[in-house]
User: Fold this.
Amino acid sequence: MKFSQEKLNKVNEIIARYPEGKQKSALIPLLHIAQEEFGGWLDVPVMDYVAELLHINPIEVYEVATFYTMFNMKPVGKYVLEVCQTGPCMLRGSDQIIDHIKNKLGIQAGETTPDGLFTLKPAECLGACGYAPMMQLGKFFKENLTIEKVDALIEDLKAAAKN
Amino acid sequence: MAVKLLLDKAHIEGIRYYDTWRKNGGYTAVEKALKMTPDEIVEEVKKSGLRGRGGAGFPTGMKWSFLAKPEGVPRHLVCNADESEPGTFKDRYLMEFIPHLLIEGLIISSFALGSSATYIYIRGEYAWIPDILEEAIAEAKANGWLGKNILGTGFDCEIYVQRGGGAYICGEETALIESLEGKRGNPRLKPPFPAVQGLWMRPTVVNNVETLAAVVPIINMGGEEYGKIGVGRSTGTKLISACGNINKPGVYEINFDLSVEEFIYSDEYCGGIPNGKRLKACIPGGSSVPIVPANLLFKTAKGETRYMNYESLSDGGFATGTMLGSGGFIVLDEDQCVVRHTMSLAHFYNHESCGQCSPCREGTGWMYKILKNIEYGKGKMSDIDLLWDIQRRIEGNTICPLGDAAAWPVAAAIRHFRDEFEWHVLNPEESQTRNYGIAHYADPREVVA
Ligand SMILES: Cc1cc2nc3c(=O)[nH]c(=O)nc-3n(C[C@H](O)[C@H](O)[C@H](O)COP(=O)(O)O)c2cc1C
Ligand code: SF4
Assistant:
């Protein structure tokens, strides 16, 4: 397991943003790239590889990776539905959205469907309170959700996964 | 007519891009500022009365003047774009739609503070925004506003965008600095303050996105003119992100002489409450500030009109007032349950506690469990006093203000809505099937009618 040359160039570009000897600052950006490149989660060998790239101890990577919610410490589905459940979203019906997804997909919070397609990950405030209820799907937000929009989204993703 | 200083150009097609921005007066502030001395810029910001827009409202000019300047040690400006306080989504709007305003503010502020490597620390979940910012930075650089020897001044400056990894606590400035150094987001003990030992132990200023954007109009119009806009010590304008049970959620630039009532009901702003529902309560400055019932929202305890500014919102202290905070304005209508909402916030703070201080780590989890019991019909009367006692013991006893931020919402909910908590305890079954409603917090508009 190794980054492509293109990613390695990106890694070097990021490290160059910090003063000499402060390359550890690149850790979180590198973990994002690693998670994207190596299957959506951070397995121990992946974290060790990042440690090696930054010349730091593996434990320095583990303690950071486990602190931040965006890093998955176990395998996740192809699509991770991160539905905000905090106050402002709750006021606009996020509970119903989460319950609907649980029923529709037959999974609980934090679980993945048996076909490996969907993980439901309730999230805390994502900064989209005015466009609630909402979820994060990969890089983007899906906002102003309704039950119908969630149904359509899940169907679209299922279709996309087949192609 | 409301004065707009930040969003005045937001409606212009293509304003995200350099050419359009420049054609509409963009980068004139940088031109002007780079002809001034750094100290003159700090002086303008002081004169403007600008107060930090990240939540605490600390005077920006004063903060800048505290920056230590030891010989031969680089200094840094860090832009706080972590924006994770529930109810707050204003910085996102600025960065997504008018990124050059922020870049301009960053160049001027970097020059004033002597930062040649400036970092924007943006919450990791805003994953598409770094692309927008980096594009704007590249455009600015291509046009000579960034890089080496800017406008022949001898000043070099680069701006870098750094994504976080998902942690509310990284909005706290010392946790942010730790995170930027590639560590867990554990707030530091102060002193030393960042102004003396911040990023990589170098003197550092951390400012909110909106604060740094406001430097642009301050330079364009002059600090004194900026200071004339507003009311008392609330100068300039403020972005408010409005959400919850209102007809028109979104980001608004307001003037500080706008009444809270007009903000909620005018069509220019929130447009009232959907479905003819009555107003129950409001959290006007992000989830950390005290919730106030409708009867204390439009008028202060003294019966004066309440306005959307620092002083008026906090009139009456925590007993009957609240705070402007970050401007995350959350409205609750009559169908909302204060116990449930408080429980949700308690879960948030428990989830986001970094775990360094026992009152915060243990107290937030304990409060959540008790609130959950009360919400689900398993609470006891003594639980309400216990909650009060726990929040009181967290407040002021922790390394960073997250402890206070977790305690205040619980305290305010009990202070103003104790009867709703008691009703849950006394009616464990009924409370599972219906909401308590509005009770005596009658919507003041209805009383008048
Ligand atoms: C728990 C916690 C979270 C915070 N989150 C943010 C945030 O997301 N954005 C922000 O600008 N300031 C946040 N702050 C305030 C910062 O610590 C700091 O005061 C601010 O960035 C200073 O900038 P300003 O003076 O321009 O407001 C937070 C503070 C605490 C205690
Ligand atoms: S108050 Fe809470 S979040 Fe802040 S340092 Fe202590 S444990 Fe961490």
Chain B is about 40% helix and 10% strand. The longest strand of chain B covers residues 237-244. Residues B 52-56, 58, 60, 80, 82-85, 169, 171-173, 206-208, 211, 400-402, 405 surround flavin mononucleotide (ligand 1) (CB under 6 Å).
